[in-house]
């Protein structure tokens, strides 16, 4: 094994296609349903919200989709993202596990979200769209979409969840630096927003309703979603395709464990689905593990059934693990993990038994994140810290048994704009706030019966 710790790729090795897991799943995923008729939605139903090229990707069963040259050109600025061997963290943990982390914090917005923001804006632009609306939670998606919009000369309007608008003014500024326009959600600009008090802390579900409502009413505008949908997961597979090639360069014949944090499921799927392809083909046999917060335990305690993607019930019904579309999670610091649902493709893969899930409390996550920062020099996003905390558990278990698993973990972004969360943790002021059974059944009571 080489002494190298960072693995990259030559320009001619760079992946030029995205991978579509739908082509390889033995059981096809259940289709999204029209909210009125409960019939499977067709491309026409999605046309008010998305441009034709993205609708085609949403429903495609082709195994690979070529990445357009203008998108590759932007990717080249920050891709391949590095794969590192976390040797000093391994040493600190005293583990015999070999830990590799794939670091998406090198993108212009500091997270994996740029990987899909760029193609989404590109396809809208070539389909004649010049105005995009979207939501953002912690601010990562709004930042990525507003950067991509500025590259292709598209107007970008962002509904930011009230709680993070109020507590994270720097995120709003960063979106504005990249040229986006920010509204606090719930806003007074939409019927969905006006259903709530002006000082309501908001939620991703409400912000999605607002952005969808505005796009649906403006024939010149479309809507962009930062996670959950098939085409978003497709774009993120560039992460896992690179990681497979980089792992081979590290002299590994495959992974034994692949771990990522899951909010809507996009960074996790982006890393995991190319590994799942290898697993289904029998060439590797990794355990694949999604990690979520105990206060928003969609995969581990939600129900697998049809529900809306937003609070107002404007989106198609998707079969997914859900906590209920009007569920408002407690204000944990990993804003990007506070979503009531899960990508239907991730939910399906969990339901089929290909992927496992676990839920962790935020104090344990920050503890792992601080240990990681002190050994590897990178401050993880609070979302990513969930994946690291699970890796820490696995690495400590390996230390007990002397096993030598190869662990690949997704580090979805850096936390340099989330230092307030670190200050709370270091000051001993972070609460673990598990979801009570009462709150869970209350939220699930409003899921439509299909
Ligand atoms: C948005 C975000 C997440 C959660 O979204 P997924 O779609 O589940 O990936 C995770 N990590 C970071 C850094 C994010 O910005």
Automatic annotation (TrEMBL):
Matching Pfam families: PALP (PF00291)
Reaction(s) catalysed by this chain's protein: (1S,2R)-1-C-(indol-3-yl)glycerol 3-phosphate + L-serine = D-glyceraldehyde 3-phosphate + L-tryptophan + H2O
Keywords in alphabetical order: Amino-acid biosynthesis, Aromatic amino acid biosynthesis, Lyase, Pyridoxal phosphate, Tryptophan biosynthesis
Gene Ontology molecular function terms on file: L-serine hydro-lyase (adding indole, L-tryptophan-forming) activity; pyridoxal phosphate binding; tryptophan synthase activity
All residue ranges annotated as the Tryptophan synthase beta chain-like PALP domain in the record: 77-413
Keyword Lyase belongs to the record: yes
Protein's UniProt keywords contain Amino-acid biosynthesis: yes
Alphabetized Gene3D superfamilies for the sequence: 3.40.50.1100
EC number: 4.2.1.20
Cofactor: pyridoxal 5'-phosphate
Known pathway: Amino-acid biosynthesis; L-tryptophan biosynthesis; L-tryptophan from chorismate: step 5/5
Domain of life where this protein originates: Bacteria
Residues that bear N6-(pyridoxal phosphate)lysine: 113
InterPro entries: Trp_synth_b-like (IPR006316), Trp_synth_b_CS (IPR006653), Trp_synth_beta/beta-like (IPR023026), TrpB-like_PALP (IPR001926), TrpB-like_PALP_sf (IPR036052)
Gene Ontology cellular-component annotations: cytoplasm
Family to which the UniProt record says this protein belongs: Belongs to the TrpB family.
PANTHER family reported in the protein's UniProt record: TRYPTOPHAN SYNTHASE (PTHR48077:SF6), TRYPTOPHAN SYNTHASE-RELATED (PTHR48077)
Known function: The beta subunit is responsible for the synthesis of L-tryptophan from indole and L-serine.
NCBIfam families associated with the record: PRK12391.1, trpB_rel
Subunit-level organization: Tetramer of two alpha and two beta chains.
Record protein name field: Tryptophan synthase beta chain
């Amino acid at each position: 094994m080489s002494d190298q710790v960072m693995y990259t790729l030559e320009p001619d090795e760079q992946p030029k296609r995205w991978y579509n897991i739908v082509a390889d799943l033995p059981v096809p995923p259940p289709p999204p349903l029209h909210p009125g008729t409960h019939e499977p939605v067709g491309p026409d139903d999605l046309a008010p919200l998305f441009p034709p090229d993205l609708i085609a990707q949403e429903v495609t069963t082709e195994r690979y989709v070529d990445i357009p040259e203008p998108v590759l050109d932007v990717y080249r600025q920050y891709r391949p993202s590095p794969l590192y061997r976390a040797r000093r963290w391994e040493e600190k943990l005293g583990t015999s596990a070999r830990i590799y982390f794939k670091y998406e914090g090198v993108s212009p917005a500091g997270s994996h979200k740029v990987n899909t923001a760029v193609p989404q804006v590109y396809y809208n632009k070539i389909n004649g769209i010049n105005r995009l609306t979207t939501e953002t939670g912690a601010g990562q998606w709004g930042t990525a979409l507003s950067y991509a919009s500025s590259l292709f000369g598209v107007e970008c309007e962002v509904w930011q969840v009230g709680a993070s608008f109020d507590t994270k003014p720097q995120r709003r500024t960063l979106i504005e630096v990249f040229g986006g326009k920010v509204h606090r959600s719930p806003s007074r600009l939409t019927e969905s927003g006006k259903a709530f008090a002006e000082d309501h802390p908001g939620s991703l579900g409400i912000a999605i309703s607002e952005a969808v409502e505005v796009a649906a009413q403006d024939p010149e505008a479309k809507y962009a979603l930062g996670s959950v949908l098939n085409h978003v997961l497709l774009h993120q597979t560039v992460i896992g395709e690179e990681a497979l090639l980089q792992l081979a360069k590290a002299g590994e014949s495959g992974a034994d464990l692949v771990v990522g944090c899951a909010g809507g499921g996009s960074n996790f799927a982006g890393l995991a689905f190319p590994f799942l392809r290898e697993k289904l083909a029998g060439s590797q046999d990794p355990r694949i593990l999604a990690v979520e917060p105990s206060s928003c335990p969609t995969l581990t305690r939600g129900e697998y059934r049809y529900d809306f993607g937003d609070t107002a019930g404007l989106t198609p019904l998707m079969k997914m693990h859900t906590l209920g579309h009007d569920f408002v999670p407690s204000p944990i610091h990993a804003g990007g993990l506070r979503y009531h649902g899960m990508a239907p493709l991730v939910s399906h893969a969990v339901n089929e038994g290909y992927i496992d899930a676990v839920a962790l409390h935020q104090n344990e996550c920050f503890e792992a994140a601080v240990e990681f920062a002190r050994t590897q020099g990178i401050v993880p996003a609070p979302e990513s810290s969930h994946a690291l905390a699970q890796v820490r558990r696995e690495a400590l278990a390996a230390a007990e048994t002397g096993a030598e698993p190869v662990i690949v973990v997704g580090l979805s972004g850096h936390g340099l704009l989330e230092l307030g969360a670190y200050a709370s943790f270091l000051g001993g002021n972070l609460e673990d706030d598990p979801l009570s059974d009462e709150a869970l059944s209350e939220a699930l009571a409003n899921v439509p019966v299909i």
